[in-house]
Amino acid sequence: MFRAEAFAKTFEYAELFVQGLICTVSLSALTVVFGFILALALAVMRLSDIHVFRFLSRERQRSLTARGGALYALARFNPLRFLSTVYVEVFRATPMLVQLFIIYHVVLAGVGIPTFKLFGFIRFERFVPCVVALALNSAAYLCEIIRAGIQSIDGGQTEAARSLGMSPWKTMRFVVLPQAIKNILPAIGNEFVTIIKESSICYTVGVQDIMYAVTTVKSAIYTIAEPLIVATCVYFCLTFPTSKIIAHFERKMSAGDRRSGADTARVRKSKNLALKG
């Protein structure tokens, strides 16, 4: 099934796979950065408590509820939460390939993206739409991860920060988000691994990633099995060490939480003994 001479011919194009590796890592890194920024904004929007029609009185709401409740629902309407929810549901419910084609062939088709080559081989006008599409898709999933992390923080800490005079923005920035990000860091790392694998569809629009190298080598040596095996090994060498690094940091953070919990238990025990004494 696999031929040694075909592998030998495939390795003659090793430079293409190296270029594909660089392109894939660049795509994934930029996607995580921009996707995280957008997801953070979306998560805050989903947790917001902004009701633009709050001015409707409770009495009027109750009277209109009996007639169908349209204005009552309008008074409770949160536009930021609505927009972020629609965004998340749409991007999670549609295929990544469709989103990429819409971004590349429709949304950014008439935009004058500069035409030059990153690192001497990545076509920038094709690279940018892929980063945009991947970041928009990743943000929909990261948004839910960040929202769950924020909601996992005890509400008493927010109340304590507000009682000290901190504004809602400072409470979120200095109290809630640092703890939430610590809790969701492993999930964000796993999302990075997922993006590395999902970026393989970008070859469909001509981005020189690992799968683009496979198609190029296939056209040169007239076989597909051996280039695919090489691509599989390259993806494995990217994702497997990344997964292990994420697991290592997850264990370290868990150990720190266990130590802090044990210290708290010891302090409580010593206080109880002191009270009994």
Topology of helices and strands:
Elements: H1 4-11, H2 14-46, H3 58-65, H4 70-75, H5 79-93, H6 96-107, E1 117-118, E2 122-123, H7 124-151, H8 155-163, H9 168-198, H10 210-221, H11 225-276
Antiparallel strand pairs: 1-2
Helix pairs in contact: 2-5, 2-7, 2-9, 2-10, 5-7, 6-7, 7-9, 8-9, 9-11, 10-11
In words, what does this structure look like?
The protein has 277 residues and is mainly α. The protein has one domain: MetI-like (MetI-like fold), CATH 1.10.3720. 77% of the residues lie in helices and 1% in strands. The chain has a two-stranded antiparallel sheet. A hairpin with a 3-residue loop joins strand 1 (117-118) and strand 2 (122-123). The relative contact order is 0.14.
Order of strands in the sheet with most strands: 1-2
* CATH third-level topology: MetI-like fold
How many structural domains can be distinguished in the coordinates?
1
Taking all residues together, what is the mean pLDDT?
82
CATH-assigned homologous superfamily: MetI-like
Overall morphology:
elongated
**Beta-strand content bin:** under 5%
Q: Please report the total strand number as a whole number.
A: 2
Measure the end-to-end span: 79 Å
Task: Give the low-pLDDT segments.
Answer: none
